[in-house]
Design brief:
Layout (H helix, E strand, L loop, with lengths): L6 H7 L18 E2 L3 E4 L2 E4 L8 E4 L3 E4 L2 E8 L11 E3 L10 E3 L4 E5 L1 H7 L3 E5 L10 E2 L5 E8 L4 E5 L3 E5 L9 H7 L10 H18 L10
Antiparallel strand pairs: 1-12, 2-3, 4-5, 6-12, 7-8, 7-11, 9-10, 9-14, 13-14
Length: 223
């Protein structure tokens, strides 16, 4: 049986800004691939179609307007090192109704018995790359070139992707925030990400639960 874990200590180990600190400036490892679909007030729409002012369904705050959209063309496939390759997610692995691909550094929210058992909260945020090996999730060569879209809100939000997966969408808008503003107003991210040993511990526990119950067993529906 697992022992009691100091929640404050573990929360302190989370990555408060959703990044590992590694220099991956050459590659875009966060964001939503353009072909993925988001739940909006007008139904499921491709990320490439989202514009400022569109209402997107969020996990905690219902429909919220998009305040900015960042689009970046990125290299993929054979042009990328393994650490920057897209993550392929089979249908149903994360609540998604169809198979999908995620940027490796994209933060994903999961709901599982393992998270509640380990950290006292059934919801946990992990990098897509840390989920490789769970429920058939693996690396993908992907297309030769792809576009990554980041939708920004007034605050960090969790949005619904490809039929039910949950991913974090940030409030930060590159190029529009001064250092002075950040110093005066920056607050911890609402959806801190488990990384390192905490992430490995959680994914291992989720995998054990899956082995016992079958794929999809430990993952609850967040609908």
């Amino acid at each position: 049986m697992l022992g009691i874990i100091d929640l404050d200590a573990h929360r302190a180990k989370r990555d408060p800004l959703g990044d590992t600190g590694q220099d991956q400036s050459t590659y875009r490892t966060k964001g939503i691939y353009a072909g993925s679909r988001l739940a909006t007030a007008k139904g499921w729409r491709r990320a490439s179609e989202i514009a400022v002012g569109d209402l997107v369904l969020t996990f905690d705050n219902g429909m919220q307007p998009v305040v900015a959209v960042t689009r970046t063309a990125v290299l993929a496939g054979r042009h990328l090192p393994e650490a920057a390759l897209p993550v392929h997610v089979p249908a149903g692995a994360l609540g998604n109704q169809t198979e999908m691909e995620l940027a490796p550094g994209q933060s994903v929210m999961v709901e599982s018995d393992a998270a509640e058992r380990l950290f006292g909260d059934p919801f946990a945020v992990l990098k897509a790359r840390d989920l490789v090996g769970f429920a058939g999730i693996g690396r993908s060569d992907g297309p030769a070139v792809s576009e990554v879209v980041t939708v920004h809100f007034a605050q960090d939000e969790v949005v619904h992707l490809d039929g039910g997966a949950l991913v974090v969408a940030p409030s930060d808008v590159p190029g529009e925030t001064t250092l002075a503003f950040l110093s005066a107003t920056r607050q911890p991210a609402l959806y801190a990400t488990y990384t390192g040993e905490d992430a490995r511990l959680l994914v291992a526990a989720m995998t054990r639960d899956t082995d016992l119950r079958g794929v999809g067993g430990p993952m609850r529906s967040a609908a």
